[in-house]
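Final report, Chapter 2: Outcomes

The project's central promise was a pipeline that accepts a single protein chain and returns its three-dimensional structure in a standardized token representation, suitable for archiving and comparison. That pipeline is now operational. To close this chapter, we reproduce one record exactly as it appears in the project archive, with the input sequence first and the structure output second.
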Amino acid sequence: MSLFDHSIDELHQLLHKKEISVSDLTEESIQRVNEVGEKVGSFLHLSEEGARKKASELDDILSSDGIKGSLFGIPGGIKDNIMTKGMPTTCASKLLDGHDPVYDATVMNLLNKENFVNIGKLNMDEFAMGSSTENSGYKLTRNPWDTDRVPGGSSGGSAAAVASGEVLFSLGSDTGGSIREPAAFCGIVGMKPTYGRVSRYGLVAFASSLDQIGPMTRTVKDNALVLNAISGHDHFDSTSVNESVPDYSEGMTGDIKGLKVALPKEYITGGVHEEVREQILKAVKRFEELGAVVEEVSLPHSQYATAAYYVIASSEASANLARFDGVRYGQRVEGENLIEMYKKTRSEGFGDEVKRRIMLGTFALSSGFYDEYYKKAQKVRTLIKQDFEEIFLNYDVVIGPTSPTTAFKIGDQVDEPLTMYANDVLTIPVNLAGVPGISVPCGLGKDTGMPVGLQIIGNHFDEKTVYQAAYAFEQVTEFNKQKPEL
């Protein structure tokens, strides 16, 4: 039995009783990364020396003062678009090859305060653009359940590292589903918090009005513990909201009797694959057996979400990525003059998907087309937000599938970007509305044998109710205990 089969609470009890040390945990993590690294490919940068040094320091603290911090001694991994001082941050892009930040992101400062052990940086789609982690500039990450399939994206490395038992938790970022979709594909728990709940300071921006950092774990309670650690107002981030942060792990009793649950008809029809729909309808029955009241509702504007999202996200990306020009960050390709240097650097540094989105966004923002595309997309976004506001007047949470399909084969959609974009159709409305959403495992597809994710969506800053619903479901199903064989 692996130490990582235990929850964070259980590991803390073992540490407290001196039955294990932080170094034991760290060595198990490093050994597992080396064992499955070639098969899965989760990590871009493994910090063996740094992790061992930190573990030794924490063991000294443990022997003198005991456990100090909610994540004390727990090995974790960080998506490669989050700034880590003294450790490379490349966004999985050749353009930022070798970039070594001079500061830590706010979430890193908060995790360090809780004394976690950073095992390293995790692979992703370049600049978080993709749904399969096939767009990384460095390597392919594979799904631990079936290494011929994708782990989802863009936080594919973060999801695969947790699912394969390399780390106990990871951080991802979610712009249109990039935490929840890979969590669903890899059979783990992934939370996108309310926009403004977690500081974005030190997160390399893709689409600033949509990006959020969130935790990925094996269990709902572990997920809540990590979100507790990274939530809160940050004066370095003007979009951070000064809202009180409750203890998310409180109230996890498993009792959701009387909880009002909305099931949007748009989320279980159309392109949702039969093997996914079957597991979701079983999950709905579980909620009813637990005493929740589930009723069918409609989110009428969700059908326009994907189109609106790709206009807004690409427009913001075209502006955010303008800074990567060979002057200030990362790689530079010399030219005969400044303009030629810009062109060569960006042409050789960015991958195809990043270039595609920059061109799409630049077109949408260009003179004569702004009103027709960008302004119209923002109006659609308002309608989608209003749909959720009306639902939450009468319901506590919304449930449905996280993704319309299970994990697809590597290479199946790589030449069909519009098909790839459709994978996020059920997660994108949550980002456009700015509400929180979690993906929890709800079974295996009968055709593919791959994990299916149940998405639970809450009202603004009501992550606590989302966690309570997810925990109650987890306690009567225990799908989180299913593990891939590697």
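Archive annotation: The first strand starts at residue 43 and ends at 46.
This record, like all others produced under the grant, will remain available to the consortium after the project formally closes.
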